[in-house]
Amino acid sequence: MTVVDLGTIRRLVSVTVDDVEHRVPEGATIMDVLDDAGADTPRLCQAPNLTPVNACRVCVVEVEGSRPLVPSCARKVEDGMVVRTDTERVAHSRKMVLELLASANDLSEAGDDVARWQIEYGADPERYGPPGPPAAAGERGNRHPGHHGLPDGETRATVAQPVTVDNDLYVRDYARCILCYKCVEACGTDAQNTFAIAVAGRGFDATISTEFAVPLPDSACVYCGNCIGVCPTGALKSVAEHERREAGTWDPEGETVTSTICSFCGVGCTLELHVQDNTIVNVTSPHDHAVTHGHLCIKGRFGFQHVQNVAPPGEH
Amino acid sequence: MDLVLLPDASTDAERAAVDGVVGAPAQPRRDLLLPALHAVMDAVGWISRGALSYVCDRLHVPPAEAYGVATFYALFSVTPRAPRTAHVCDDVGCAAFGGEDLCAAMEERLGPAGSGDEVTWTRSPCLGLCERAPAVFLQLATPPSEREGSPDATRALESSPHDDAHGPGGHAQIAPATADAVVRALHGDDVPGPDPVVSTPQAGAPDLELLSRVGVVDPGDLDSYRAAGGYAGLRRALAVGPARVVDEITVASLTGRGGAAFPTGTKWAAVAGSPEPEKYLVCNADESEPGTFKDRVLMEADPFALVEAMTVAGIAVGARTGYLYVRGEYPAAERALVRAVDEARRHGFLGDDVMGSGRTFDVELRRGAGAYICGEETALMNSLEGRRGEPRAKPPFPTVAGLFGKPTVINNVETLVNVLRIVAEGGPAFASVGSGRSTGTKLFCLSGVVARPGVYEVPMGTTLRELLELAGGVPPDLRAILLGGAAGSFVTPDQLDVPLTLEGTREIGATLGSGVVLCFDSSTDFAAVLRRIAGFFRDESCGQCVPCRVGTVRQEEALARIVRGREIGGRTVELQLLRDVDRVMTDASICGLGQTAASAVRSALALGLVGGSS
Amino acid sequence: MFGAGGGTSAYSEVEDTDLVLLWGSNARETHPIYFHHVLTGLRRGAAMYVVDPRRTSTARWARGHLPLDVGTDIALAHGMGRAILDAGLENRAFIERATTGFDEYVRAVEPWTLEKTAEVTGVDAGLVRETALAYACADRAQLCWTLGITEHHNAVDNVRALIDLALLTGHVGRWGSGLVPLRGQNNVQGGGDMGAIPNRLPGGYDVTDDTHRARFDAAWGSSIPAARGLHLSQMFEAMERRELRAVYVVGENPAESEADVAHARALLSGLDHLVVQDIFRTATAELADVVLPSCADWCEYEGTVTSSERRVQRVRKAIEPPGLARPDTEILCDLARRLGHDWGTPSPEEVWDELRSLSLDWHAGMSYARLEAEGGLQWPCPSLDHPGTPTMHTRLWERDPARRGKPAPFAPVVHAGPLDELSAEFPLRLTTVRRLDSYNSGVQTGGYTSPLRRDEALCLDASDGRALGVHDGERVRVVSRRGAVEAPVRFDDAARPGLAFITPHFSEQVDVNLITNEAWDPQSGTSEFKATAIRIEKLAVGARVPVAGA
Questions:
Q1: Where residue A316 falls among pLDDT bands split at 50, 70, 90?
Q2: Full domain range(s) for residue B543
Q3: Structural domain harbouring A230
Q4: Which end of chain C is more exposed for a tag (fewer CB within 10 A), N or C?
C-alpha cells in the first residue's frame, strides 16, 4: 500500500556529447543533456510543458548510427549514445531551418534568441528571391490539398496574410505562424482539452484553423489564452498587446514582471503580471509551477482589467 | 468530452451515410472518422458543416480536428463540388503519354478544372495505372438510396468481377482514357473493367511465383483460388506454428518491397516476442509512388493471396486483427478485396476459428483518401486512427508502439504475398534465389517508352537490360530511366547492366525503391518531368516539418528559375541553393518523403537532363 | 477534516488516481486549472463519476453522470454506503484501525436501499450501485466537491456524509486517495486558517482551547473571548434582533451576494453604523457610513494566500494602487491606533512572521524566503526543515497505534431535503450556478469583455418551456416564496425537466438573490443558494409587472 508518492526510480545512463561523457537519468532527452551542459541549442516548437512534436527540426544533432539527424528535443538518451553537435552537418541543417522559416514567415517578433540564431548560423532568406504578394484574408485557409499552380520562381511563396481579429481578447497573426503545433497542443491534450483549433490543410498550405475556419467566437474556444502563452513568434497575442504595438506604444524594455497568485477561485494559480507604464499588459504563468504548468483560464489571463478600469478624476 | 458543435443541420442523406458506418449508438471511435467522411463523400460529393458536425457528434471527435483531417486528404472536399469528378493523371508516367493531351481535351469539354455543378475534372498525381496511360480515376457520389443492392459487398458478390471497374461508392478507373469515355462515364455510362492480362504480359508463364495466379484464377472465386494451390500456405503455417513461420521468414531474408527494404523477419520477430497482449498487423496497400502499380495488379487479380498472406502473418505475430489500408484511388482493387475477405470469412479462413485451428484473425479494410504520405508507415497508422496522415517520430518504432500504440507489423502487399511462397517452400529455398539481402523474386513496374509496359516478375539480380528485354527490348533512343519512383533517381543507358538488387543499385547511387522502371527517350521534356516531380513533393508534403514543408516549395521555385533561365545570381548560385535545400531535406526531415524529395532532381541535374551539364 | 479544515490531497494526486468522484462540482468551469490535473488523470486511465443535478461540461467527461435532485446528496451518499456494505467492499482493516463510530454509520445508512435511494435522489439505482462499487474497488480514489455540497442548509452534514464514504473505503491519507474540497474563492482557505471564522484562532486552534488561547493572549497582550463568535448568517440574525448595530465589512458584498438579498439590504440599511472596506464602491459600500478604499491585495500589495491544497503562496505588488486606496493591514493598524492601540507599521513579512510564531503546527516553518524559493508550501509545515505536507492524514495508515493517533470518527448524519420545498404553487427547482468567465457577483469579472458572455437568462429544459408555453428568449416572471424577478428564458440541455438554473454574476440584469432562500446551515452559516422553489409566470402582454423586493 503506497501511502506517499514514490516517484519514479530512474537509473543513470551514459551519453557522450562532442566527446564529453555525461551521466544522466534515463528518460532525459538529448536536449536536457545539452541544456545541463550549457549548450545554446536553438528551439522553436519545443516547450517544457508540452509533449515534443519535433516539427521545426532546428534543434537537430548527429547521433551515431542514425543516418538522418535527430531532433534533440524529442529523442530520449540511451546508454552508450554518441551525440555530436559540433559538425558542419548540424550547423547546416540548423541554418537552413532558420533560413527557410525566415523566407516564408515574419519572424520579427520571435524574440531575441531567434534573431541571434539567425545571425549565428548565417541564415540568408533573401537568396530565395523577393517575397510574393500576401494572400487575401482567409484565402490560405481555403486551399484544397494536392495540386497547385506551377510557380515561375520569380518570387518566393510566403504565408503573409492579414491579421485576424474576431474577438475582444486575442488576435491571430498567421503571417508569423511557423506551424510549431504548440497552440494546438495547449488547446488540446497537453493542457486545455478544448480542441478549438487544429492543423488544417496540407503541406505549405497547412494552417492553424477552427472547423471551417469559423471565427473563434463560433468555435469551441474558451479563451484560456494558453495558445498565446506558448506561441513562439507573436502569431498569437492579446488584443491589448496588438493595439499597443499598432499604436507604437509597446515598450518591452520598460516592462516589469511580477509573480503573484490569481484572485479568482481557490486553486491558487501563479500569475506573472507583465506591467508597462503601471498597466498590466499581459498575464502568463511559469511553466515550472506545480499547479499551473504554465497554463491559465480566461479569468486568470484576462480577468485583471478590473484593477485598471479606473475612471479619470472627476468621473465616477 | 464537452464537444462544441456548429449549429448547422445535417441532411437525411448525410445522416444515413454516416449511420451506415457508425451504427446505431454514438461511440467514441475516432478510427471510424475516415470511413465516415468517405461515406459522406460517396453519398453527396462533399462534406458540409452539418455533415461534419454530425460525424463529430456520433464519433466524439472535436470538429476542429475532424476538419483538420478532412482537409488533409485530396479526395475529400469541404466545399461544394460536383458530385461526379474525374481525376486525370498528369504525373510523370502519364503526362507525356497522353495525360496532358487528355487534360487539354477535358478542359475543352468541361471547362477549367474544378468548374461545373454536376460533373467536373481535376488534375491528379499518379493513379497507379501507368502501364495503360493516360489514366483517370472517377470519384462518383451516389446517394445510398440510389445504389442497387447496397451494401456494396453484396453487390460485389452478385456481379461478375470482369465487367465492372466500380468500387464502393461507385468509383471507377479508366485507362487508357479518352475524353469521350471519361465524359460518358461522368454522365453515367458503365466503365469497362481492367484486364489483368494486359497489365501482366508474363501472365501464364511457368516460372512465375508472385504473378503465378494472375490471369489464371478468377479473382472473385475462392474455389478457383484454392484449385490453384491457395490456402496451402496457411494450412502449413498453422501446422508448423507461429514460431517456425517467423523463423522461415527470417531465414528467407525477405526484405520489404515498399521501398525501404527493411528485413521482414526482424519486424515479425520483434512483434511476436512482445509481451504486450494486443498486437496488430497492417498491410500497406496505399501504393502511390509515382510509376508504381504492382500492388494494384496483385490485389485486383489475386486478392485471396493477399488475404491468405495477411492471415499467415497475423497468426505468426500474434495479431487478432489485420488492417488492410487500400489506396483510395484503387476502387477495383478494393472491390476485389472486399469480396475476397467476405468469402474467406464465410468459409472459415478468417474469423475466430481460422481453418479450424482455434486461432482468431480477421481483416478490416480501410480506404485511403488521397495522400501519398500515408504510404509512410507511421503516417498510415495515424490515418487508420482517424488522424491527419502525419508521420510520427521514430523511435518508438511500430514494432514497439504502432497502431493504437500497440506493437504492429506493417508490410507492403508484395512483401506479404512473398510470405506464401516462403511458408510453402521454406526460407532456404527462397533465399537461394538472388543474393545477400536481395532474395526471392521482385516485381517491376515498366512504363513509359517500352514496347510492352506492365508488371514483370524477375529473380533478384536480373539486370536492368534483361528486364527491358522482357518488355520488348531496350527502347530505341532511350535517354534515361527513372528507377525506383519519384523518390528514386534517374539512370542512363550506360547503366543498363546494373543487377537489380539492393546492393547493385546502391553501387550506382540508385535504389530499387518500389520497383519503378519508367523509361524516357530523347524527345522527353525533362524540364517538365522534373518540375512535375518537384511539384509532386510540394503537393504531397504533409507540412509537419520545416525542411520538407518549405524546402519542397523552394526546390520547385529554384527549378522553375533554372528551367526558365531566370537564375538569381547565376546558375552556380542556384545549384548551390538547390544543394542546400536538398541537404536539409535529406538530413533533417522527419520521414522518408522529405528525405527523398530531392533525390530525382539531384540525379537529373547531375546527369545534365535539364539545362545542359552542371 | 478530522480536526483540520482543509483538503487532504495535493492537486497532483488526481493525476495518479484510479477513480475521480466529483460531487457538486463543475470544475471544468469553476476550477479550470484543477480540471487540467483531472484530465491528466483521465488520460492516464482514471475513471470519473460526476454527481451534479445538471449535465455540466464536467459531467460530459465522466464515465457516469449521476443527475441527482437538488439537495439529496446525503441520501445518495448513504445509498452508496449501503451498496458498498451490501457488496462487502468496505475496508475493514482501515475501519477497525483508524476510525470510530462505524456501527452507528451502518445503522444510519441501513434504510438507504438502492430502491429508496433511487426514489429520493432520482438517480438510477444501477448507476448508484455502479458508482459505489467503482469507488470502493478503486485502488486509489479522489473525492472532490464544491459549492454543490456546501450551499445548502445542511452543508456540514453533506460534507460529513462524503467523508464517511472515504472512511468506509479507506480512501484517505494515501497518495492518490483523499478528499478535496475545492474552494470557491481564492483565499477562503487562508482566511479560515488565519482565524477569520468564528470558532478558530489563527493556525486552526479552537477558541475554546485554553492552552492555545493563552499563547495568543500572551502574545497579543489582550484577552480573547473563549466563546465562538458569530458567522455571517448569525450576524444578520443579530441585526434582525437589533443586537448588532455596527458592522465593519472587509472585502465582502453582502448587499448583493446574500440570499434573500432584499431582506439583507434592509437590515444593512437599518444599522447605526456601517463601515465598508473594499477595492470597489460595491452595492454594500453604497449603504455605508464610511468607505475605506483598499488595495487589490493580489497585485497592489504584498502578502500570502492559501489554496485548496493548503498551499501558502505569495502575492506581490505589481502596480500602484489607484487614488487613495491603501493596503488592508495599513488601514487596520491606523484604525487600531485611533482606537488607542499602537500596532506600529508592520511590513507584510512582519505580520506573517507573527503568525508563524503562533501557528506552530501549520505555518511555523514557512518563512517568506522559503515560500519564495519553493513556490509555496503546503501546511502543516511546523519547522524550517519540514518539507510541507502534500498528503494529510497518512498517520491513519500507521501500524503503530501511537503513531496512528486519534482515530477518525464516522459522523452518521440524516438526510434532510431542501427547506424551500417544492409545492403545487412552486413546482420548479431553481439552482444557482457559475460560468467559466465570471466570478460570483461579477464585480471583478465585469471589468473585462469576455467573448463567452451572454445576457443573463433563466436556463430551462426545453420540455419545461413547452409545458409552460414559453419560448426560448421570452421574458418571464420568476416567483419564489420571497420575491420575484424578471428574466429571459433560455433552453439549455444542461438543465432537465423540473430543474432551472441561473448565475449570480449579473445582478444588474437579473437580481437572482431577491428570490433565493436565506435559510442557512447552523454549523457553517452558508445559505441555501442551491435550492429555491420557484414558479414561472408569463408576462401579461404590454403590462409592466412590479417586481417584488425592488
A1: very low
A2: 526-607
A3: 157-307
A4: C
Is the domain spanning C188-378 CATH 3.90.550.10? The answer is no
Chain B residues with beta carbon closer than 8 angstroms to that of C60: 1-3
Q: What is the pLDDT of residues C484-504, one digit of tens each?
A: 999 999 999 999 999 999 998
Is B442 found in the same domain as B310?
A: no
Residues of B in contact with C44 (CB under 8 A): none
Which partners does chain B have (≥3 C-beta pairs < 8 Å)? A, C
Contacts of C57 in chain B (CB under 8 A): 2
Say whether A146 sits in a helix, a strand or coil: coil
Tell me the residues of chain A between 176 and 215 that have a Cβ less than 8 Å away from chain C: 189, 191-193
Does A265 lie at the interface with C, CB-CB under 8 angstroms? yes
**Count of domains in chain B?**
5
More reliable by pLDDT, C444 or A170: A170
Is B335 in the A-facing interface, judged by CB distances under 8 Å? no
Nearest CA-CA distance, residue B131 and chain A, Å: 23
What average pLDDT does range B28-38 have in this prediction?
Answer: 95
Q: CB-CB: which of A100, A147, A198 is closest to B67? A: A198
B72 — phi, psi (to 5°)? -85, -30
| Per-residue pLDDT tens over the stretch B357-384 | 999 999 999 999 999 999 999 999 999 9
Query: Selecting from 3.40.228.10, 3.30.930.10, 3.90.220.20, 3.40.710.10, what CATH number does the domain C11-181 have?
Result: 3.40.228.10
Would you list the DSSP string of A243-273?
A: HHHHHT---GGG-EEEEEE-SBSSS--EEEE
The one-letter code for the residue type at B10 is S
How many domains, chain A? 2
**What is the ipTM, given to two decimal places?**
0.95
State residue A4's pLDDT score: 64
Chain B residues within an 8 Å CB radius of C65: none
| B502 CB-near residues (< 8 Å, 6+ apart) | B255, B261, B436, B437, B438, B512
Contact list, A194 vs chain C (CB under 8 Å): none
> What is the CATH number for B383?
3.40.50.11540
Selected for mutation to probe chain B from C50, C56, C57 (highest B CB count within 10 Å) is C57
Residues B40 and B132 in one domain: no
Handedness of CA A87, A92, A93, A97 (dihedral sign): positive
| B171 in the same domain as B114 | yes
* Pick from B131-145, B464-478, C15-29, C41-55: least confident: B131-145
Residues of chain B contacting A214 with CB distance shorter than 8 Å = 6
Q: What is the pLDDT of residue B612?
A: 53
Q: Inter-chain contact A258–C317, Cβ cutoff 8 Å?
A: yes
Contact C61 B3 (CB under 8 A): no
**In this structure, are A123 and A162 located in the same domain?**
no
Which residue in C has a C-alpha nearest to residue B4's C-alpha? C57
Nearest-angstrom CA–CA distance, B35 and B150 = 16
Residue pLDDT, tens place only, A206-217 = 999 999 999 999
pTM, two decimal places = 0.94
Q: A62 and A84 in contact (C-beta within 8 Å)?
A: yes
Using the structure block, give the residue that is written with the C-alpha cell 462540482: C25
Whether the upstream peptide bond of residue C546 has omega within 30° of 0, thus cis, is: no
- Residue C18: pLDDT over 90: yes
Quick one: closest CA in A to B534, which residue?
Answer: A150
| C91-100, C229-238, C517-526: which is most confident | C91-100
> Across the interface, do B544 and A145 touch by the CB < 8 Å criterion?
no
Q: Do A89 and A169 share a structural domain? A: no
Dihedral (Cα; A111, A113, A116, A122), 10-degree rounding: -100
- The answer as to whether A150 is a domain residue is no
Cβ–Cβ of B1/C28 closer than 8 Å? no
For residues B8 and B51, what is the distance between their CA atoms, to the nearest angstrom? 8
